Each structure stands twice: as C-alpha cells, then as structure tokens.
Amino acid sequence: MATQIHITAMVDSSAEIADDVTIGPYVVVEPDVVISRGCRIMTGAIIRRYTILGENNIVHPYAVLGGEPQDYKFDSEQKTYLRIGSDNIFREYVTISRATTDGGATVIGNGCYFMTQSHVGHDSIIGDRVVLTNNAAIAGHCEVGDGAVFSGNTLLHQFCWFGELSMIRGTKAVSQHVPPFVMVMGNNYIAGLNIVGLRRADYIDQTDIKQIKEAYRLLYRSSLSLEEALKEMDAHTEWKAPAARFREFVRRVLTAQPPYNRGLVTARESMRSEED
Hints:
Elements: E1 4-5, E2 10-11, E3 16-17, E4 22-23, E5 28-29, E6 34-35, E7 40-41, E8 46-47, E9 51-53, E10 58-59, E11 64-67, E12 81-84, E13 89-90, E14 95-97, E15 105-108, E16 113-114, E17 119-120, E18 125-126, E19 131-132, E20 137-138, E21 143-144, E22 149-150, E23 155-156, E24 161-162, E25 167-168, E26 173-174, E27 182-186, E28 189-193, H1 195-200, H2 206-220, H3 226-234, H4 241-254, E29 266-267
Parallel strand pairs: 1-4, 2-5, 3-6, 4-7, 5-8, 6-9, 7-10, 8-11, 9-12, 10-13, 11-14, 12-15, 13-16, 14-17, 15-18, 16-19, 17-20, 18-21, 19-22, 20-23, 21-24, 22-25, 23-26, 25-27, 28-29
Antiparallel strand pairs: 27-28
Helix pairs in contact: 2-4, 3-4
C-alpha cells in the first residue's frame, strides 16, 4: 500500500517515511525522523527531530513524540533520540521526551498503550506491553519492566525502577524501586503480589508463581534484612527465570550507586488510612 500524506501535513524532506504510512491533516514531521511501515499518524500530531518509529505504531491527535527534554541542563545542539519499537498506541496529548545526553536515547518497547495525557520523561527505558492510563507520568531516567501497568494519575519519580508485571493503584506515587510482580497500593507501599497479572501472563506457570511467592516471602515476610534475604534467595538454585529476575532485581537495588540508590518500597499487610 502506498504512503498517504495529507496535503496540509508538514513533512520535512529529510524524514524517512516507509511504505504503507498514513500521515493525517496538520501533522508535523521534523527533520531526521524515521517512520517505519504501517504507522498511522493522526490529525495534529507532532513527531519531533531524532525520533525513530518502528512498524505499526498508531499516534492519535495532538500527541508529541520526541520533544526536547524538560531539563534545564539540556543543550539543544546535542543529537539525542527517542527510539520507539512496534505496535504501540499513543493516545491524545501523550508526550514523550528524547534523551538529555549526546547520543543517548529514551526507549519505548513494543505493544505498549499510552492513554490520554500520559508522559514519559527523558532517558527512560520502557519495556514491552506496558500500559500508562490517563495522566500517568514517568519521570526521567526511569526503567519500567515488561507488562507493568500504571493506573490513572500515578507518578514514578526520577531514577526509579518499576518491575515487570507490577501494577500501581490510581493516584499513587513511588519514589523508590518497585520489584517485579507486585501491587503498589500506597505511596511507596506494596500490598502483595499481582496474582491476577501473574495468572494472566502466558509465560508464567504454576511453578513460577510458587517460586515468586517464596521470593516475596523471603524479602517481605521473613524479618530478614535485604542482604540476608538475598543470601537465602541465592540458595534456591532451582528457581526458574521469573523468580530469578525477582532475585536479581533485589541484588541490583542493593548495589545501586547514586542517584539510583533509592531503596525498595516497603510492604504492609493491610492498607493504612489514606493520609499517604
């Protein structure tokens, strides 16, 4: 199928536009942009300089992808990137910033869904199948694991890691690292494992869930220090990949250097009052 570019769209001559791309009315595509086959860019969306779009991405009206980072120290003469995988959906007014350091990139994986007015900050790395619900915001220099879900009006502080298949309750925020497979129910508090998400994941089986539960128990319900819990986890050489990733997340947090030395979120058996 031939590329279709509306007569009112402003597409720079240096942009690389593949076959089977649709660019709607009043879209702006800046210099040095790459748009791969099957992408659909809707009315009024803006694809900023040094943005690379993989295949079959859908960009809804008035989204801005690859904008300059919201960072005082950014030098606009630097060549920094936004690299986006394939099969992502960017709804209305989504904003995603490119990186701050020369040659660096903000990275978006595959199959993600960014709902209206959600935001990803500069230098962040977003995995596959991540969902950001309306008004969710991820700050700069964050990492988000595959399959994570951010409910409406949630916040992830800069330099934080948010684990695979973890989920955060609406209106809450975290400023510490969140391990894989958990439910964030308050500000920097988790309330247990994301059991529904684990059961729905086609690559997680019952043995994996049992091992993840043991890893969680050692970390949050054993009264062991982080170092002691990690030592106990290391003794489980039989653990398969998912539980091993939980263990390695803990190890990474323990060895993190500034500004990433933010510690792990804590756990509680029941919700406190909503003062947090």
